[in-house]
Design a protein that fits this description.
The chain is built from four helices and no strands. It is an all-alpha fold.
């Protein structure tokens, strides 16, 4: 798949993943779980769903041995996003505006990590 098409597919799958995570969270709230537990449950369900949709639809690879790297990349993006939001909020940019400004950079970072670190071919598979 060409890089541009793969990145667009990545963004569309990201939208699907976001909707799934939100739906999982909403269902858990509706069954009267506390917010903190619903948030954890929604995130865990979202990460599992995201691994299979991103792996299959974007990178054509859902080998479970890639899951630890997927989770690591996911956490790295979370930490980067959180730190950057805290910096922008300290500059009086507000949490929502900060996230809107950071979303493109986080999406590109996430795509890079997924394409190179998580779903990139292993050294043994690389030519030369």
């Amino acid at each position: 798949m060409k890089l541009e098409k793969r990145f667009i597919t990545f963004l569309l799958v990201g939208l699907l993943n976001t909707l799934f995570g939100l739906a999982a969270y909403a269902i858990l709230i509706h069954v009267n779980l506390p917010i903190w537990l619903a948030l954890i449950g929604g995130n865990v369900a979202g990460i599992a769903f995201n691994f299979f949709t991103t792996g299959h639809l974007v990178f054509s690879d859902i080998a479970l041995n890639r899951l630890p790297r997927f989770v690591t990349a996911y956490l790295a993006c979370y930490v980067l996003n959180y730190v950057a939001i805290r910096i922008l909020v300290s500059l009086h940019l507000g949490a929502i505006k900060s996230q809107v400004l950071l979303a493109p950079a986080i999406a590109v970072t996430s795509y890079y990590l997924m394409s190179q670190y998580v779903f990139g071919r292993s050294t043994a598979e690389r030519p030369g």
